């Protein structure tokens, strides 16, 4: 497990010394001088209404205002984001096709899938980190007596027949987090994949599912209503909107910092002037308190980084995630 204490703090990540010549090589610089002079297509590799889609729409609204052209969302869900990511990778590298690429796309897919239609390390120009959000350990209040994470661990270990944990799909951070948690705590845990939190939450509230370690954004309302117990968040520090919920380390589970994150990307070879223009606009967006507030209301934090730092972050995550995939036993064709 790699040391992640140097991860994101306060919405910005300092520049890293990792060069990215293949991803950021300049091309068509002359054509990029007046970019954008027409609408920019934004491919979101996930369905409408999910965290990635909602946060991409907030950013596109801001980019449209700052760069003077429409950033038009086109949802291309399917195959855990692979369909949309392939569309970005194979688009013309002229700056007019961009989109959000999550941890699943850039740092998990290559370990999960036997074959991918794109290379996560070579086929994209990384512009900046876009957002981060933690997972949260949640269980239905009606069916789960424990009030702390350590009590929950003891209770789960003692349950005859073990426990079940839900996720939005095989290979998601919710799946990998649940598998790692059960492995480390010696809990007999059974993974149950769903399409998303909209199906996981009712399953827990009906008593058909024991717990989840899923994206916080989806669970804030049911936590606030008292229908879900939140035992800990997987971020390095307590989350601003839920200051009473401890981190995993504070709850007695060290070395369990696992956040979902997203970078803004285009196809490899996108002109460096375009990358720089979008990056500068994203820096302004992340510095806007009103935008940060909108992101926090969804359970996320708006980020900015240099392109090299975004590339370094994706690379830094891969050894840990490869180990998590191995522990989970997940494999997709």
From TrEMBL:
Keyword Signal: yes
Pfam families to which the protein is assigned, alphabetical: TctC
Secretion signal, residue range per the UniProt entry: 1-31
Name of the molecule in the record: Tripartite tricarboxylate transporter substrate binding protein
Similarity annotation: Belongs to the UPF0065 (bug) family.
SUPFAM superfamilies linked to this entry: Periplasmic binding protein-like II (SSF53850)
Tree of life domain: Bacteria
This protein's UniProt keywords: Signal
InterPro entries named among the record's database cross-references: BUG, Bug_dom1, TAT_signal
């Amino acid at each position: 497990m790699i040391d992640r204490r140097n991860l994101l703090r306060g919405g910005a990540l300092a520049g890293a010394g990792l060069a990215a010549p293949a991803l950021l090589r300049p091309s068509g610089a002359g054509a990029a001088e007046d970019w954008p002079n027409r609408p920019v297509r934004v491919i979101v590799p996930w369905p409408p209404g999910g965290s990635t889609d909602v946060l991409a729409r907030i950013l596109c609204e801001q980019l449209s205002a700052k760069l003077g052209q429409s950033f038009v969302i086109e949802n291309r869900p399917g195959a855990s984001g692979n369909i949309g990511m392939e569309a970005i990778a194979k688009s013309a590298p002229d700056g007019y096709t961009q989109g959000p690429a999550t941890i699943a796309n850039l740092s998990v897919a290559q370990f999960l899938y036997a074959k991918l239609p794109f290379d996560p390390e070579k086929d994209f120009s990384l512009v900046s980190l876009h957002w981060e959000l933690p997972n949260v350990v949640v269980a239905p209040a009606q069916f789960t007596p424990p009030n702390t994470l350590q009590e929950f661990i003891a209770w789960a270990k003692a349950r005859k027949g073990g426990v079940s944990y839900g996720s939005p799909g095989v290979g998601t951070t919710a799946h990998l987090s649940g598998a790692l948690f059960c492995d480390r705590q010696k809990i007999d845990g059974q993974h149950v994949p769903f399409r998303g939190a909209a199906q996981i939450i009712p399953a827990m509230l009906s008593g058909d599912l024991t717990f989840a370690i899923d994206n916080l954004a989806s669970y804030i309302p049911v936590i606030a209503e008292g229908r879900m117990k939140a035992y800990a968040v997987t971020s390095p520090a307590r989350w601003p909107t839920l200051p009473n919920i401890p981190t995993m380390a504070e709850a007695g589970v060290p070395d369990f910092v696992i956040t979902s994150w997203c970078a803004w990307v285009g196809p490899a070879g996108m002109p460096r002037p375009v990358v720089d223009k979008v990056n500068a606009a994203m820096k302004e967006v992340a510095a806007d308190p009103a935008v940060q507030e909108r992101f926090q209301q969804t359970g996320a934090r708006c980020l900015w980084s240099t392109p090299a730092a975004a590339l370094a972050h994706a690379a830094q995550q891969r050894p840990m995630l490869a180990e998590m995939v191995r522990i989970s036993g997940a494999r997709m064709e």
